Amino acid sequence: MTLHEAAAGRYYEDFEIGDVYRHALGRTVSEADNTWFTLLTMNTNQNHFNAHFAARAPYGRVIVNSGLSVAVILGLSVADTSQNAIMNLGWDEIRLTHPVFVGDTLYAESIVLDRRESRSRPYAGIVTCRTRGLNQDGDEIMSWRRSVMVYRRDAPQDKGYFPAAKTGELTL
């Protein structure tokens, strides 16, 4: 029997400049997603929740809250770029290049732009990626540069967190 410890994501050593990650999942944005996010964040722009009002705007329909779109694209990228991150260090050059509408399915991909060892934390490195979001038609809806501090493979901080069962090991 082989015990596979709880683990996910990439470590600093796994990133190479120029590598592209097409993130595995897509996410369709529903009306409920948009309405709840808009209410939660107290965004009172009626283009996000008032169909009658939005019908008179240039796109003629409700536009998904851009904060939600950014959050979805970020979330889609986590498994490949920041699952083992300690912290976000910065986002730059955020561009919203195409509107997102209810019913659109969002996808994300990232390219590694830079990597360097951390000067202050020997157990980590800093990785910078450009991430972009696409809709189901291949339209680029947004992009940004993001830097994260990521654990090195031998870092002890993210190991051994899975609890030991009080009833003993799992057996056949």
UniProtKB/TrEMBL annotation:
It holds the Pfam family MC_hydratase. Gene3D superfamilies: Hotdog Thioesterase (3.10.129.10). It comes from Nonomuraea spiralis. It comes from the Bacteria. This is MaoC family dehydratase. InterPro entries: HotDog_dom_sf (IPR029069), MC_hydratase (IPR048274), MCH/BMMD (IPR052342).
